[in-house]
Design goal:
This protein is an all-alpha fold. The protein has 22 helices and no strands. Helix 5 runs antiparallel to helix 6, helix 5 packs parallel to helix 7 and helix 16 packs across helix 17.
């Protein structure tokens, strides 16, 4: 507002009638808004009048009359408008009319002491007193940059609120001027005086010359704007939004994909806007409730027309797969079917599938659903045999290395299980053969456990062999002692002595050890039988306990039910 007031003040120095007319219209506008209780219009009109007072276009009497009118019957809105008016022109009123200014603040103090207004308005009055105490430091009357007119050159108009004024609305409408040439000469003289136009000569009297000069000036200005427009960068993205709107409306208003493609090609897209077209096709397809083949055929037509459209669709495939976890189920299904259609028709390269790594670490539930819908759509349209031939194609091995991994048996098993679970196990025949051909290696942890078990068994066998040898020695010693006693007894009884052969002693020892081993076996069987009987008894007792507990639970539940029924 202060800038417009400065412009009016500059015009008022040369055309005082213009400044007077603007001031009249502002006063009339304030009267109407005050009668209608239009607070917003009151604030704007009083602000403009306040800045005209600061520029000395309007007399300070007008401002004092407005303030007394607003504070005579004080309401919340009128006090708020008067405070906004005081903030703008309070500094100038303090300079020009100290007594009137102090009278206004006395009235504000009385309103504050009465306490009939809202707390918010009372707080605004207190803030106004604080601004007056600071001598309007933050609210100067005129900014130094806008102080362009000297006081001696300015015309101040004394117009009061009660004075009848004419809007002169007839000036808003064109009227035929009979003395146009004379008035035009007068205007040129005034123009020369104001602008100090030295280039105006007597030759400028002709209207044609003036028009040609104005046309040339307009052309120069358009050329300058054209050069400047190349350097302007539009960060508001208004052109992008209008382009997306046009593409969307064109797609929705088309009956079939051929008509839609023809209309979109007529838009004459720039190289940077091709990507936006591809994004719009994918977004429109994703927003549908069910997949519509219209969008697949439309994308196929653009990809087959020019390779410049195929590359953006491949980049969109990569970005969609990376952010597939953010998609809703419906959107995910539509996008997967759209790209499946583009792969079936070879509109985009199959190498885009190299971006997919099918293993437990690199996939999420959403990405697995995307792969499932994609391959199920491929198998339905192409058939399992043709799809298998495409997968086994040697030129496309890089594309399917991630989907059918052979680097790690764990990833291979994961891929086999995944395709088998979605009903496409026929695609994994080569993977199964590859998995069978891999040599089975023993895990290091399992081999360590086997070594420990073998060591324990060998130690147990050595202990048993030592114990058996010790028993043999004890038996042999006992047998030798018995034989010696027997020989001594025989020698005492009879002079003849008999020597046992080595064969017989060996047989007797063998028979004794055999009998001992039988005894040990019988003991072991007896112990095992006792152990089994104990286990059977414990199992029976535990089953009896379980039956008793079950009966107790049934009784308690039945008693609770009976209690609840009662």
């Amino acid at each position: 507002t202060h800038v417009y007031a400065t412009l009016v003040a500059i015009c008022n120095t040369k055309f005082p009638k213009v400044g007077e007319l603007i001031l009249k219209r502002l006063i009339i506008q304030f009267r109407k808004s005050y009668r209608r209780n239009d607070k917003q219009v009151c604030i704007t009109s009083t602000r403009f009048i306040a800045h005209l007072v600061n520029q000395q276009v309007a007399h300070e009497v007008v401002s004092l009359e407005i303030l007394t009118l607003l504070l005579e019957n004080a309401t919340n809105d009128s006090v708020e408008v008067s405070i906004a008016f005081l903030k703008e022109c309070g500094s100038k009123l303090d300079e020009l009319s100290r007594r009137g200014f102090s009278a206004i603040f006395e009235r504000l103090r009385n309103i504050l002491h009465e306490g009939q207004l809202d707390k918010r308005v009372q707080y605004m009055i207190e803030v106004m007193f604080a601004i007056r105490k600071d001598k309007f430091k933050d609210h100067p009357s005129v900014i130094p940059e806008l102080d362009l007119i000297e006081e001696s050159e300015q015309f101040t108009h004394l117009i009061t609120l009660d004075e009848p004024a004419d809007n002169e609305d007839k000036l808003n409408v064109f009227q035929f001027d009979q003395n146009f040439e004379e008035n035009e000469e007068k205007y040129k003289a005034i123009r020369k005086e104001i602008l100090d136009d030295e280039t105006t000569d007597d030759d400028d009297d002709d209207d044609g010359d003036d028009e040609s000069g104005e046309d040339s000036d307009d052309e120069d200005e358009e050329a300058a704007e054209a050069t400047d427009s190349t350097a302007i960068i539009d960060n508001t993205e208004t052109t992008l939004r209008t382009l997306r709107r046009d593409i969307y409306l064109t797609i929705q208003s088309s009956l079939d994909f051929e008509e839609c493609a023809h209309k979109l090609l007529k838009l004459e897209l720039k190289p940077g806007q091709v990507v936006e077209l591809c994004h719009m096709i994918v977004d429109c397809a994703a927003q549908q409730r069910t997949y519509m083949k219209f969008y697949g055929l439309l994308a196929q037509r653009f990809c087959q027309l020019n390779n410049d459209y195929a590359e953006p669709f491949q980049e969109i495939f990569h970005s969609c797969y990376d952010t597939i976890h953010r998609f809703e189920t419906n959107k995910l299904r539509n996008v997967a079917k759209l790209f499946a259609h583009l792969l079936i028709t070879d509109a985009i390269s199959w190498n885009v599938l190299s971006h997919i790594k099918l293993n437990e670490e690199d996939t999420t539930s959403s990405s697995r659903v995307f792969i499932k819908i994609l391959f199920q759509e491929l198998s339905e349209s192409m058939g399992l045999v043709k799809l298998n031939e495409r997968i086994k194609d040697t030129t496309l091995q890089e594309a399917f290395d991630g989907l059918f991994p052979r680097d790690d048996p764990r990833n291979t098993r994961f891929a086999i299980n995944f395709f088998t679970s979605i009903g496409l196990g026929g695609l994994t025949d080569d993977l199964r053969d590859h998995l069978k051909a891999i040599p089975k290696t023993v895990m290091p942890f399992a081999s360590n456990e086997l070594n420990k078990k073998l060591k324990k068994s060998s130690i147990h066998e050595s202990d048993s062999s030592e114990s058996s040898s010790e028993s043999d020695e004890s038996e042999s010693s006992s047998s030798s002692s018995s034989s010696a006693s027997h020989s001594s007894s025989t020698s005492s009884e009879s002079p003849k002595t008999y020597k046992l052969s080595s064969k017989r002693t060996h047989r007797s020892r063998h028979s004794k050890t055999h009998s001992n081993s039988k005894k040990y076996r019988q003991r072991d069987h007896h112990k095992k039988d006792k152990h089994h009987k104990r286990q059977e008894k414990e199992a029976k007792s535990s089953s009896r306990k379980n039956v008793k507990d079950h009966k107790k639970l049934e009784r308690s539940t039945s008693s609770r039910r009976h209690h609840n029924n009662r």
